[in-house]
Specification:
By secondary structure, this protein is of the alpha+beta class. It is built from three helices and six strands, in the order H-H-E-E-E-E-H-E-E. Keywords: Elongation factor, Protein biosynthesis.
C-alpha cells in the first residue's frame, strides 16, 4: 500500500474535523432555507390539500435533527485524544490503521467515536472513518498489528489482517 510511512493520524483527524465542520455549515444553510420556506407567507395552506408549508416544515425539522447529530459528532471527534499506538492496550479510539482483506485488497481506517462512513483523503490515500458501534470497529478494539479480525456481514464471514497501526 503506498504511503505507509507518511500517514499521519493527526492530519487525518484534522481532515475529519474539517469535513464535519463543512457538512455542518452546509446543513445549517439548508435548514435555514427550509425554515424560511416553511414560515413564508406564500406557503400558508389555502386548503387541506395545500401541503407545501407542511412539507417544508418536515424538511426543516429533519435537517435540524441531522444538524444536531453532526454537531454532536464534531464535538465528540474534537474531544478525541490522539495517543500513540500502544501494543499493551491495542487498537483504541483514535487509531489509524491499514487492513488487508483475504482477496488482497487493502484499506485505511480511522477509528472515531462518531462520523462513521465519512471518507477523508490524506497523503493521496482514502481513509474511511469507522466507529466501535460497527461490527468491524468493535472487533478491532484491543487488537494489535499483525492480528486477524473476522466478522460476519449478511451471514458471510470476512477476514482481515491488521497490517499497520498508528
Amino acid at each position: 500500500m503506498s504511503g505507509f510511512n507518511v500517514m499521519d493520524k493527526h492530519a487525518v483527524h484534522q481532515r475529519l474535523l474539517e469535513r464535519l465542520a463543512i457538512d455542518l455549515d452546509v446543513l445549517q444553510r439548508a435548514a435555514q432555507t427550509a425554515y424560511e420556506a416553511a414560515t413564508h407567507e406564500e406557503n400558508v395552506a389555502e386548503n387541506k390539500y395545500d401541503t407545501l408549508g407542511l412539507e417544508a416544515s418536515y424538511l426543516a425539522t429533519g435537517q435540524a435533527r441531522r444538524m444536531e447529530e453532526i454537531r454532536q459528532a464534531l464535538k465528540r471527534c474534537q474531544e478525541l485524544p490522539l495517543r500513540p499506538y500502544d501494543e499493551h492496550s491495542g487498537i483504541q479510539l483514535g487509531a489509524l490503521l491499514a487492513l488487508e482483506a483475504e482477496n488482497g485488497s487493502e484499506q485505511w481506517l480511522f477509528l472515531a467515536p462518531d462520523a462513521a462512513g465519512l471518507k477523508v483523503e490524506e497523503a493521496g490515500q482514502l481513509i474511511t472513518v469507522i466507529s466501535p458501534r460497527s461490527p468491524l470497529g468493535g472487533a478491532l478494539l484491543g487488537k494489535q498489528e499483525g492480528d486477524e479480525v473476522a466478522i460476519k456481514v449478511g451471514g458471510v464471514a470476512q477476514c482481515y489482517s491488521i497490517i499497520q497501526v498508528t
